[in-house]
Amino acid sequence: MLGLCTVLGVLSCSGVGAMVSTQDDQSSVHLTVYNMGRGLVKDTRHLTIPSGQGELRFMDVAAQIMPQTVHVKSLTSPDKLRVLEQNYEYDLINRARLLDKYVGQKIKLFNWNQYQDKKETVEATLISNNDGEVYDINGEIYLGHPGYGVLPSLPENLIAKPTLTWLFDNAEVGPQQVEVAYMTNGVSWNADYVLVVNKEDTAGDLAGWVTVDNKSGATYKDAQLKLVAGKVNVEQARMKNVMYEMQDSLALAGNASSFKEEGLFEYHLYDLQRKTTIKDKQTKQISLLDATGVPLEKVFIVSDNNMNYYWSQNQSDRKVPVNVEIMFKNSEDRHLGMPLPEGTVRLYKEDNSGGQQFIGEDRIDHTPKDEQVKLKVGEAFDIVAQKKQMSFRNTSNRTAETSWEVSLRNHKKEDVVVQVQEAFMGMTDWQVTTSSMEFKKKDAQTLTFDVTVPKDGEVVLSYTIEVTR
Fold it and tell me: Which of 178, 9, 168 is nearest to 86 (CA)?
């Protein structure tokens, strides 16, 4: 409630009286959270401010507020209320700060001996509070004291909560809706996904969750929550203007049960279509999406990206991993189509007894609609790949020719297609001179073979490559 000041005996009155506003005056609060660990707060309060000049103490703001971003305006009378000066008060009450204020002064020390049921009060001068309390008691120096310190009163200029203090000039008589907007550090969000794969590995159910972590030092009660996905570059000198340019674009409407997504400049905005309370020092999870029957593609990939072996003779027969990837397209015809914020996707699959088991996880970047999502799940157990160099010769001081065999053995109950990849990182040129199977040039540095391996069978791929460095 807004009224004449005396808050914990600390605030002093001056002019027309220092006014105090707390969260009880709040009519609405909007919180927009960015990937970069910052939040934009719009705190609207119903206030009755005296006409003329005076002081307003605006309490219950975030402890990690960025004071240079604060903007104040009256929604009901924007041309009548002006802020002439602003101060951010953060000298908060605690034991150390209280004792610092009383260094050089007399205080009382209260001691109770519970074994003798004896109470004693002594008067002492606090001569230091640097790395421990030092007292002068009757001419003797005490390094600490077992008793409790008793102070005569709260010193001035100490406050219980971070507070914005304004010198205002008000020409309006009567109640006003005053909006205070500011940026704060200490609030962040990230996305997490759960993908449950079906028995045939051909489709899955994808659930997305948003986790909001609030360490800003304030509670946002019944807040309208918005999340911005994307890498926002904010220059310190322009932060206030950029903040309001973005804030003016945040009005959305839609389904009242979930997030609504829309484009915002070169980013994406997710608007929770209901109010929520985000407490200080709280981690809150909110459902982002729920898609069923998303078509999936499982791919087995053999990739050996050690380019040094092209320039040496290596006769060893070595086993190379067979990686498993799950891919799907983020499109409406695949039951998706909403831009996916970056985050971790955890994959599960039902076992024969009906229980869900964890099968792997991978991280995705911000993914627009109609783009492919690729997840590295792990390594195949029942598919074995072995690679062996069959020949090597230098054809010049910059070129070499080498022949390889890749043996693929499939111990699964069904046929599989394994993609064998060769990467030519750092090579100026390369070409396949002979090959036992068809191949594709994926890009300037990658060669692929799609090899069908029958169940309980083995296939040997052989090829010769000439490379130039």
Answer: 168
Give the separation between CA 285 and CA 161, rounded to whole angstroms: 27
Residue ranges of domains in the chain: 95-150, 297-330+371-468
CATH topology (fold) of 297-330+371-468: Immunoglobulin-like (2.60.40)
Rounded Cα distance between 301 and 323, Å, is 5
Per 3-state DSSP, what percentage of the chain is helix, strand, and coil (rounded to 5)? 5, 60, 35
pLDDT, position 117: 66
3-state SS assignment for residue 453:
strand
CB-based contact 52:192 (threshold 8 Å): no
Query: What spatial distance separates the first Cα and last Cα of the chain, rounded to whole Å?
Result: 76
Give the least confident one: 28-37, 145-154, 294-303.
145-154
pLDDT per position as a tens digit, 244-257: 433 333 333 333 33
For residue 311, the one-letter residue type is W
Give the residue among 336, 248, 255, 343 at the shortest CA–CA distance from 292: 336
Number of Cα atoms under 13 Å in the Cβ half of residue 262: 13
Please give the residue that has the higher pLDDT: either 52 or 232.
52
The pTM is what?
A: 0.71
Cα–Cα distance for residue pair 49/70, rounded to 1 Å? 19
DSSP assignment of 126-153 equals: EEE-SSS-EEEETTEEEES-SSEEE-SS
Phi-psi region of 37 (alpha: psi -120 to 50; beta: other; left: phi over 0): left
| Cβ atoms of 61 and 163 closer than 8 Å | yes
- Angle 366-368-370 from CA coordinates, rounded to 5°: 140
pLDDT in tens, 198-223: 999 999 999 999 999 999 999 999 99
Beta strands (DSSP E) in 241-281 are: 259-264, 267-278
Pairing mode, if any, of strands 343-350 and 187-197?
A: parallel
- Coil/strand/helix, residue 384: strand
What is the rounded average pLDDT for all residues in the chain?
Answer: 84
**Residue 405 parent element (H or E):** strand 399-410
Say if residue 315 is exposed, middle or buried (CB neighbours under 10 Å; 0-12, 13-18, 19+): exposed
CA angle 289/39/164 to nearest 5° reads 150
Residue 325, burial from CB neighbour count under 10 angstroms (0-12, 13-18, 19+): middle
CA angle 340, 368, 345 (to 5 degrees): 35
Q: Are 47 and 21 in contact (CB under 8 A)?
A: yes
**Encoded amino acid at 397, one letter:** N
